[in-house]
Amino acid sequence: MIRNQASYPPGYYIEIHGKHTETSRHNNKETKRDIVDFHFRVALGDELIPKGHVTGLTPGKLEFLPDNKRGYRGTIIPSLNPTLSDVEEADYLTAWCEKYVADASKVKCFTLQREIRWHDTAKLEHLIRSALLETNYRGHISITFPTSHTSVTVYSPGLINRWRMTTWIRWIFYLSFLWIFTWPLLFFLTSRYEVVKSVWYYASKPPGEEMGRIPTTNDEVNYFYKWQSAIKRNVLKSNGLEQHILGFI
């Protein structure tokens, strides 16, 4: 299951938000409020998937918690132990999964993290801002690069974990403030395994190392030209009421 989930990249987007401030006067009082002019997302997830990738079969690059770094290794707090120094690197995932299954702890969880690296967001943001200025828009522009589905956690079967994952039970604890007592209890009861990452590279080298830098799909400039017209159109026609998503997530 972990290997299968590692074959799915995280959700990745550009979120473009434009607003201006409107000032009104009434009875000698000045009131300011923000007016949303546009707010939409453009999909970036496909840019992380290399050619030949088979979703469900081909994982992203797997990285494991190194022996010299503290982390959750079936422990309650970050620790340097136990390690898998005697295991072949190719078998790390299997070894950690087997260790999790063999763990006698009643409450435990295993987390796969998904991470994006080496995307030159500063360059892409600069290109998008330049395009938006060409539309004569003069409001405040915010451009961010949010992610989603950045982790998958598998919980062991058992009453406590079933309760912690049941929505209505969680709401009872939130509204009654019982979470003040239960969260510390869950923290000290749960053995955590956070030892593996599925890493998705936008390019073969980090931003700034342009010589020999090969994008996984499109580099930042080509991606911008691919979506430039659609972004401009969306800014010009948007009424600020809806958040649109352009492209495939």
Fold blueprint:
Elements (H helix, E strand, L loop, with lengths): L1 H4 L5 E16 L2 E15 L17 E4 L8 E3 L16 H11 L5 E10 L3 H13 L6 E5 L2 E2 L2 E5 L3 H6 L2 H10 L2 H11 L1 E11 L18 H18 L5 E4 L3
Parallel strand pairs: 2-10, 5-9
Antiparallel strand pairs: 1-2, 1-6, 1-7, 3-9, 4-9, 5-8
List keywords for this structure.
249 residues; alpha+beta; 5-stranded mixed sheet; 7 helices; flat
Q: Helices and strands: which structural class?
A: alpha+beta
- The CA-CA distance between the termini, in Å, is 22 Å
Radius of gyration: 23 Å
Strand tally is 10
- Mean of pLDDT: 90
- SSE string, helix = H, strand = E? HEEEEHEHEEEHHHEHE
Task: Please summarize the sheet with the most strands.
Answer: 5 strands, mixed
Keywords: Membrane, Transmembrane, Transmembrane helix
Can you offer a commentary on this structure?
With 249 residues, the chain is α+β, with helices and mostly antiparallel strands. The protein has one domain. The chain contains seven helices and ten strands. The strands form two sheets. Strands 1, 2, 6, 7 and 10 form a five-stranded mixed beta sheet that branches.
Short summary of the structure?
The protein has helices at residues 2-5, 92-102, 121-133, 159-164, 167-176, 179-189, 220-237, and strands spanning 11-26, 29-43, 61-64, 73-75, 108-117, 140-144, 147-148, 151-155, 191-201, 243-246. The protein is an alpha+beta fold and 249 residues long. The longest helix has 18 residues, at 220-237.
